[in-house]
Amino acid sequence: MPILVATGNTHKLEEIRALLRGFADDLVGLDRLENPPEIDEDGDTFEANAEKKARVMAAFSGMWTLADDSGLEVDALGGAPGVHSARYGGVHGDNAANNRKLLADLEGQVDRSARFRCVIALASPEGEVRCVSGSVEGRIASTCRGTRGFGYDPLFIPAGYEESFGLLPESVKASISHRAQACKRAFEAWHKLLKT
After folding, report:
1. Is 25 a catalytic residue?
2. Which of 31, 44, 68, 69 is catalytic?
3. Mean pLDDT, the chain, integer
4. In whole angstroms, what is the distance from residue 56 CA to residue 20 CA?
5. 87 lies in which domain range?
6. pLDDT tens digits for 7-42?
7. How many domains are there within the chain?
8. What is the arithmetic mean of pLDDT over 127-154?
9. Residue 193: what pLDDT?
């Protein structure tokens, strides 16, 4: 059964495909759809945004749809950037601007504890939605380190490691990341639906 992944972010799509390989091998991206609707991610929580994206795209496409919303929560910033992670620096998807703003906002801060959170929603074409979540604790580095991954990966050092996600091998990230945790829970919760 093909499952639509409601993202235009090719990095995220490939990461989800890799994490669900063997369980949901027929994952298709939004490029499979003709003129998909733009979705305003205006929810106050990751859950609200993931559910909205999944529900809208499932209704539009007539396919089971998986959508995630994820981001970085920094304790010294009261949980920011949170649901605004992708547009924290002012322009949606400008990773360099987001990282610059984060470093500027944390200048002089001793507490650099943070976590990545991910919520994955799965919606049926009829509008039934189920959610799972995952997170990984860590801290924010003082400078960008490495070029692997995307988003805040060069700044995020997961707990138990000394290197950022931007330096760690993809296999390490795939085993401990917030999205990996959420995908594992998604499979456990939805294995009968995701088994192709």
Report:
1. no
2. 69
3. 92
4. 22
5. 3-194
6. 888 888 888 888 888 777 788 999 889 999 999 989
7. 1
8. 94
9. 64
